[in-house]
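Treating backbone geometry as a discrete language has practical consequences that deserve illustration. No coordinates are needed to read the tokens, only the vocabulary itself. For completeness, the protein is quoted in full, as a sequence line and a line of structure tokens:
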Amino acid sequence: MFDLKGKKIRALLPGDEALKPRAWQHVCVRYSGGQSNSSVTILATGRSGRLRNSTETYVDAVELPEGPLKIASNLPTAGLSDLRIYRRWLADEEVDLLNHEFQLKSLMASDLDWNDLSAAHKALATNFYSANIDVGFRRRIGQLATSQLRRDYIYSRSVTTMVSEERDTEPSAWVLQRGEYDQPLEKVSPSVPAALSFNWNDWKKNAEITPPKNRLEFARWLTHPDHPLTARVMVNRLWQSVFGVGLVKTSEDFGVMGERPSHPELLDWLAVEFIESGWNMHHMLRLMLTSATYRQSGMTTAEKLKLDKDNRFLSRGPRHRMDAEMLRDQVLEVSGLLRKDMGGPSVKPYQPGGLWNVVAITGSNTRVFKKDAGDKLYRRSLYTFWKRTSPPPSMAAFDAPTREQCTVRRERTNTPLQALVLMNDTQYVEAARHLAQLTIKAAKKPKARAQWMFQRALGRPAIETDTSDMLELRDALHAVFSKNSEAAQKLIETGDSKPDKNLNPAELAAWTMVANTLLNRDDFVNK
């Protein structure tokens, strides 16, 4: 911090004060028995002090080496007096009694009546009774010590996550001379950037109470029904997720450099509907998905292609390749593998080993990739653990952002690498085998199986050409796998899940390849 003359000063936070020099003070160091920085606390004159983080590793008492205990061996004799060591964790109340030991002895020796005691003396006497006589209180102290140890154990295993919160006091900031931290100029106060055209006086006048100038009030202003931008931006992004392209194509830029909306009145109506629905995103998505515009056929004509090549006038149903996460979830859903439960920790599905080693920091807890097992492999892609410097390759192939920066609008590409992922990635081959197992069990005749698989994968009945192509491929593959049982077995054992032993390996392998081919079709990959 700096004073008005620019002189550097240091502001002490509560608990930061050093011990007073040349004065006797009671100091208590407590160790709960845990293995984290929070396991050790320091109390000076009965008050908890701030303990700096340390790289020191604390160990259980049973692991301490044998030998004499030395405390303050480098201090002069007068620097330490009345040393006491306890074999248990002391509560704050007990430490406070030790700090006021002489006052307590003097109070006990006096003949004062309870009504004659001061408030401080009454509190001290009550504290003594609780800590030394009350059996229930002492039992709870033991329970507190046990809870403290468990808390420290949890802290030692946890990863610290930095979060932001509002201060109780108004923050201070200064304009700096040419950005030099030691050359402050005038003090500045919290406010909304002038470029946002936010009139604080008008907002304050219309508010029921005087609003504070903080992020919460700024958020209230952004979501106020009279605000012209927030709802329009949000419904445009929802439209983009459903139709592939927003009504404003440059969804990341609504300014003068962005593209004009293709349907201005529709954008305005959707924004008003969004506000009046109580900012209900589920309502807006349902409205778009059940609209005649979305449900119209994706078939086109030469005339439509000439007049509306990019479908900006919505002359046909939208068609675009699904996002990476959506595509993986759809494959798992069709195969019957998808876990749909909500919440829980991140999971690590299949990916080539060793990728993290190249970019990992020494000592990092993500240096080595360890694949999960069981049904964790089939959780929704939302829960996939994401290492930003090494994202899952099967996701990156389908243009999933690295998450190193905010991405409002994803690019969509079509490359041969995407087909290789769908044909060869463990997750997709395993899903194809599970779809094949469901198909074989659902019908007995090959033609009925082909029709059932097509209906499940694409959600519409198969035409005769589709069925004949699938049966032709199945017959050719069945002949190959019947002669090479080792190749058939290797194929159906792809992934952690085990193939159904009651099914013929050659038959299952043949239908697995048919399912794999079906899951590579354009009308499966595209929405």
